[in-house]
């Protein structure tokens, strides 16, 4: 499969790119700063900016799937995620790319039915704007009526940690937090990346959100 990964220079995007390469997929690592992609041996590199639709179209054309792993915390910018969703929903049909996996946040997952973690007093105030922006990106996908086969994937709302792939993770569709028997929700970035490539190889959650945890 030929996969374009937008945000491949980031922590999450880099892990996804490495996992895809390890499984033999053809990867294009897309970043505004390609100098940060030197560790992704075996990947093609493309320079593009989601704020410039022409550059994004050029970078991701002729791919089987696109993965978006975009976070921009610079200068308090929380518009990047919803803007990325809008842009990709618009340009992917134009270049006949059907599949999109959007890596979102966990703050909008529900800790009890109808209650998102981001809306509880326990949610860290400094991350609230970013969590709401990621929730807006999910809303953009769900309300679009697009022909794109999109999937939105969330990590646990708090314990999304460094670490290699173990292969012992679980996945769950919908908006609820995925807890273990002790009421904890946790996953490593390596297993999160693996779950995303699993979804591309064998789709289970087209037009849905799913989450990953142990």
What's the layout of helices and strands?
Layout: E1 2-6, H1 11-22, E2 26-31, E3 44-47, H2 53-60, E4 65-68, H3 80-94, E5 99-103, E6 110-112, E7 115-116, H4 128-142, E8 149-154, E9 159-161, E10 170-173, E11 186-188, H5 189-201, E12 208-213
Parallel strand pairs: 1-2, 1-4, 2-3, 4-5, 5-8, 8-12, 9-11
Antiparallel strand pairs: 6-7, 10-12
Task: Walk me through the structure.
- There is one protein chain.
- This protein has 214 residues and is an alpha/beta fold.
- The chain has one domain (2-213): Rossmann fold, CATH 3.40.50.
- It has helices at residues 11-22, 53-60, 80-94, 128-142, 189-201, and strands at 2-6, 26-31, 44-47, 65-68, 99-103, 110-112, 115-116, 149-154, 159-161, 170-173, 186-188, 208-213.
- The chain is globular, with a radius of gyration of 16 Å.
- The model has no long low-confidence stretch (mean pLDDT 93).
In summary, what is this structure?
With 214 residues, this protein is an alpha/beta fold. It contains five helices and twelve strands.
Characteristics:
214 residues, alpha/beta, Rossmann fold, eight-stranded mixed beta sheet, two-stranded antiparallel sheet, 5 helices, globular
Alpha-beta content class: alpha/beta
The CATH architecture classification is 3-Layer(aba) Sandwich
Order of strands across the widest beta sheet?
A: 3-2-1-4-5-8-12-10
Number of strands: 12
Instruction: Give the termini distance in whole angstroms.
Output: 27 Å
- Provide the helix percentage: 25-40%
Question: Within the CATH hierarchy, at the fold level, what is the topology?
Answer: Rossmann fold
Strand content: 15-25%
**What multimeric state do the chains show?**
single chain
Number of helices: 5
Main sheet record: 8 strands, mixed
Average residue-wise pLDDT: 93
> Low-confidence parts lasting 5 or more residues at pLDDT below 50?
none
């Amino acid at each position: 499969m030929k996969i374009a990964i937008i945000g491949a220079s980031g922590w999450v995007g880099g892990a996804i790119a490495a996992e895809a390469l390890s499984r033999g997929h053809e990867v294009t690592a897309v970043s505004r700063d390609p100098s940060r992609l030197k560790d992704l041996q075996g990947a093609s590199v493309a320079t593009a900016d989601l704020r410039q639709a022409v550059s994004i179209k050029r970078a991701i054309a002729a791919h089987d799937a696109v993965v978006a792993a975009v976070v921009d915390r610079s200068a308090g910018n929380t518009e990047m995620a919803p803007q990325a969703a809008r842009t990709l929903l618009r340009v992917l049909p134009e270049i006949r790319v059907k599949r999109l996996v959007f890596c979102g946040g966990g703050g909008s997952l529900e800790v009890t039915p109808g209650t998102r973690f981001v809306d509880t007093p326990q949610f860290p105030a400094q991350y609230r704007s970013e969590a709401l922006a990621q929730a807006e990106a999910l809303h953009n996908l769900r309300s679009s009526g697009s022909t794109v086969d999109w999937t939105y994937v969330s990590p646990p709302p708090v314990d999304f940690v460094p670490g290699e792939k173990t292969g012992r993770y679980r996945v769950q569709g919908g908006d609820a937090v995925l807890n273990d028997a002790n009421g904890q929700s946790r996953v490593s970035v390596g297993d999160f990346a693996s779950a995303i490539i699993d979804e591309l190889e064998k789709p289970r959650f087209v037009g849905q959100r799913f989450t990953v945890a142990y």
